[in-house]
Design goal:
Number of strands: 27
Helix content: 10-25%
Strand content: 25-35%
CATH topology of the largest domain: Rossmann fold
CATH architecture of the largest domain: 3-Layer(aba) Sandwich
Radius of gyration: 23 Å
Mean pLDDT: 76
Number of helices: 7
Distance between the termini: 34 Å
Structural class: alpha+beta
CATH superfamily of the largest domain: Toll/interleukin-1 receptor homology (TIR) domain
Shape: globular
Largest sheet: 6 strands, antiparallel
Length: 416
Amino acid sequence: METKLVPGVGRLPYPAYRGKEPYIFVSYAHRDSPRVFEEIKRFNDAGFHVWYDEGIAPGNEWSDAIAEALSACAVFVVMLTPTSAPRPNVLNEIDYALNENKPFLAIYLEETQLTPGLKLRISRMQAILKYNMSDEEYVFKFVEAFTRFGLPYNRTEASAAEGAGPAASSLPNEQTAPVFAGAHPFGDYVPKGTAVITDGLGKEYTAIGNSLVYKPVGKIEFQTLHNLVSMDRSPNGYVLKDYSGRETLLKTRPGDELLFLGTVENKGIGLLDPEKIQINMVRTIRVDPDNTPDRKIRYCAVRMKDGAFQTPCEFLFFSVNDNNGAPPVMKLKKDLNKYSGKGYASLLMMKKLTVVKVGEAAGPYGDHRSLDVMAWYPGDDNETFTIDGYFAVYAMGAGGEIHQLNREELQEIEVL
């Protein structure tokens, strides 16, 4: 891609990201531009979206543009050197990011002495000492950090990118999802880490670390706990601690659930259900991010108009409101029952579902589009039916995030 030459700064490595997907905000000193731009290009080549101060449009007020980009970023990265550490703009950006509780990563491009005040503020934050690492170790560290923070990672693009370092498949203790063409911004789910869940009776459940999802009772809401290091019961709820050391309080109600991918592969009809436990039964959770259970996961390929990604079959949901009440969460196998009017069409029985037609918008309240869907069965038998009513489709992306799919963009779901 063509880059831009800026007087007094140098050649920009890549246009700053301006889209709506999660992105990295990079803070640095302009005097460090040549080597910082090398790192920005690496992040971009690895499939991560990056915003840096090239993204300020002419005429915009500097402070407003910085604040807006910082407020919307998914991860804050500061490039630390003896030049950048004392710079007022860098210190202001660090303060803003910490005050906003942004996921924080400090990358030391060279050995740097911090002021006592700055050292106190960021000493508990995750850091990468690039100057003291091999190139391969450095790439592993920043990819691991960004994916832990929940950023989608384009593994196929990263493997082929020039200068992007080792492919993600070389990362230790990490399974890789099967690959197919057409990467989507959500990214292929890749299992990472081990979570040990202990209930009030001392019973332990073992789960894949980045598959923990909190679901309130009676609501179509999913809160991903993919950055979790520990969770402990407290008088007011649960104290959650993430990789950056930040603590938050999760308030729960009886009936709320914790969904997860267990370490034993489900077989038979239960294959499409995630394991679950009533969250008020949980006493503690401890996550080891560096060891991932050796468990085979059955994947579905979800193809959208702007790409495709792979999700565990257990975390593919249709939520349907057939009775104008609070819509229940229904598994795909339990919901696709209108093709014959009786029984249900199980995804276990299918090879794939193809969207044939998206209906017209109807109704005074929001979108009420139906989908005409063709189900393909083993032996190439197929049947067409309609999914109607108010409904939504959810699937799990790269870092364990639950995404709602745009039904107008959905093209096909295939069991791999």
